[in-house]
Amino acid sequence: MTVKQGCHFFQLENYEMPAKSDNLTLPSNLFQQLLLLVVAGLCVTAIFPLQSAQIKNRIGRHQLSPAQIEKSERTETLSLQILARIPSLGFANLMADWTFLRFLQYFGNDEARQETGYRLSAQYFETIIERDPLFTDINQYLFTSVSLYSGQPKKAIALTDQALAAMSPEFPPQSYYIWRNKAIDEFLLLEDVEKAIQSHLTASSWAEQSGDPEALAVAHMSRQTVEFLKTDPDSRIAKSLAWSNIILRVVDDQARQFAIDKIEEIGGEVTIENGAVRVFLPAEDDGPTPSPSQEGN
Fold this sequence. Notes:
- By secondary structure, the protein is α+β, with helices and mostly antiparallel strands.
- The protein is 57% helix and 7% strand.
- It is globular, with a radius of gyration of 20 Å.
């Protein structure tokens, strides 16, 4: 972070705006679902590039009545309950992939979500993490759908803890980001400063042990954040840095705007340009100003 003309200024690089997922047409018959698990395993690695506006436009062409949406929600609830109970038979990762594909369909259906909300989100992630706790790509969706849209940050953090119990500083790669994201959620959504400090310290420790070239910058940022939280947890800089991280993590414009609004509420100005999030804060006595940083997850 640098100071410019009476303002605090910081920039987070490597910013991407992932779109919400497409509403894929998936079979409701459980036997068909099981047969397609192998297909799910092959397709899940390509699911993110498929999140284009062109495919998403197909969602809006299927208008359903509120009664139909509620019926679909009940059917999906039953499917999730069955999926959570059936044995994996050595295909746990594929079942996690398939459940994630189902979640992407659910999450991307804006029309249905306006009617019923995101109340099933946690059930998808319970199954995914139980089957494959090392599936780190789900983290941004877990936060957006469960913490923000479902209003269940405690549940999201509990699921994150379950996944972290299966991880190590070395594997999966960049697992230290999960600790850092957890710390930010604890600070912003639970307002639990002590837990946030401990999670940041663990993120720093894991980053230093990981051997990842970019990890030292993350370790430094986490230790720096700890100092802010210890001396002034209400610091506008600490909160702006945390919400800026949220801008990087969320997967749709509504959640992204929510984070921007939070920064603006404390007097900040946010600009997004050329792959970077820039935040300007009017100068106040917020303590020492940290150096510039980069974050990728």
